[in-house]
Specification:
Number of strands: 23
Shape: globular
Structural class: alpha/beta
Number of helices: 13
Radius of gyration: 23 Å
Strand order of the largest sheet: 13-12-11-5-2-1-15-14
């Protein structure tokens, strides 16, 4: 089994996490051993305690501002530290059994990218003009030529991924990251904008470096099979269910998320992605924090229970495990605060719940690899079963402010991963207000004890 089959992923946006200036002044980095990225090492015991087995870093290579305007694919951002600092972080993550995923920003670069600076200076005489989409005209910056920016953002200069020289440059960068930091996978920024043949070549290159290398693509809507297939990506971001997750609770309409899950995985429905692993989340560095998004804070319990038990690889964004707030309407910086352990209560109800859910997900093959079938559905209650190689997991959710009794009439006894209690499914099962249960075999829980 590839490592990502039972992955539970912790997401870090380094520029925010480390509390660095949001615009790069390009000062020399601090001395080796003093970089702010080393703060992650102190965080590793807590990441492990919470039960995560992989860490995904958003952009951390030299950039002009937010990381997605890369200017040097081989050098860690000077605001964060040095390559030696980040290698020390990666070594510690690996010692602790944590896989490492980096953010690959391959659709575009920043205006300070050396090859584009050459084009700015030499215009159509630059040997790098075909690295970009350059033509007659002018830019917002009065460059004396027009170029394509990503979705109209001209700080993000679109790369020409049809150019073999560009592709070779990016493949060499990935090889360098594997050699220097021993990474295990990539999140591909705006994968929906990447050229199809480039994705195919990228997959072949990465799998040649490591056969279990994981490729996750950022996608929004449409048929995910366009990118999620044996020739391209191993996984994509499940934005369809992201919306359904918070909206179903906010509107007290569990039919919405149930429809999406039936559409994507239901054995008696469309089965669009059966057997495939989508990346699931309730928030990230680009969207409003879930603790702000939800109308009823008590819905965090059944919501996170659903995240870790629905088909897919669950991802939790740093800070959200403690109920961190942040509104997208106030700007991206509010979503990306500096991480300070003293600001959070690691013994609180939500992180305690998440630590149980991570272990249930990674320990139960039914939860990380099983089929999906709906059992019970009303506007405010939802139950489903997942099965894999004879192992079963039954999930019960109550979005209502009152207790609810499920009558599943199933002749079996399972263990609730949240409370630890044995539950006889042949008898009525009453959930408290805003409650949830994850019923699995006791063996799948024992296998993850002491992580």
């Amino acid at each position: 089994m590839n490592w990502f089959e039972n992955a539970v992923i912790y997401q870090i946006y380094p520029i925010g996490y480390c509390g660095v200036e949001r615009r790069n002044s390009f000062n020399p980095p601090p001395a080796v051993g003093e970089g702010r990225i080393l703060r992650v090492i102190k965080h590793i015991p807590e990441i492990k305690r919470l039960g995560f087995n992989a860490v995904m870093f958003n952009p951390l290579f030299e950039s002009t501002a937010h990381g997605y305007d890369t200017i040097d694919y081989s050098t860690v951002d000077s605001r964060l530290g040095t390559n030696e600092d980040f290698k020390q972080v990666c070594d510690e993550l690996r010692k602790n059994g944590l896989k490492i995923i980096l953010d690959g920003v391959f659709n575009h670069v920043g205006r300070d990218f050396a090859k584009f600076k050459d084009v700015q200076q030499n215009k159509f005489n630059s040997r790098y003009k075909d690295w970009f989409f350059i033509r007659d005209g002018n830019s917002n910056y009065n460059d004396g030529f027009y170029y394509e920016g990503w979705e109209g953002h001209y700080d993000l200069v679109k790369l020409n991924l049809y150019n073999p020289e560009v592709k070779d440059f990016l493949m060499q960068a990935i090889s360098g990251w594997v050699k220097e930091f021993d990474i295990d996978g990539l999140r591909l920024d705006v994968a929906y904008s990447l050229e199809a043949n480039f994705l195919k070549e990228l997959r072949n290159h990465c799998k040649g470096l490591k056969n279990d290398f994981w490729l996750l693509g950022e996608t929004l809507h449409g048929d995910y099979n366009k990118w999620l297939n044996p020739e391209m990506l191993d996984s994509v971001t499940n934005y369809e269910c992201y919306k359904g997750l918070y909206s179903s609770f906010n509107e007290l309409n569990m039919f919405e998320i149930a429809h999406s899950l039936n559409r994507q995985f239901g054995a008696e429905h469309w089965c669009l992605y059966t057997g495939k692993k989508l990346a699931c989340f309730v928030d990230n560095h680009d969207v409003t924090r879930i603790a702000t998004q939800l109308k009823e804070p008590k819905h965090l319990t059944p919501l996170y229970t659903l995240l870790f038990t629905m088909p897919g690889a669950p991802i939790v964004y740093c800070g959200s495990e403690y109920g961190q707030t942040g509104d997208k309407h106030a700007g991206d910086d509010t979503l990306r605060p500096e991480y300070k352990a003293e600001d959070y209560d690691s013994s609180g109800e939500l992180p305690t719940l998440i630590s149980k859910l991570t272990r249930a997900h990674s320990g139960s093959s039914a939860l990380h690899s099983g089929s999906y079938k709906q059992l019970h559905l009303t506007n405010r209650q939802f139950s489903f079963i997942r099965e894999h190689n004879g192992e079963q997991a039954v999930v019960l959710l109550n979005a209502d402010g009152n207790p609810f009794t499920f009558n599943l009439s199933m002749n079996k006894t399972l263990t609730d991963a949240i409370s630890g209690s044995e539950v006889n499914l042949s008898s009525p099962i009453t959930l408290p207000a805003f409650g949830s249960m994850v019923l699995v075999s006791s063996d799948s829980l024992k296998s993850k004890e002491g992580m």
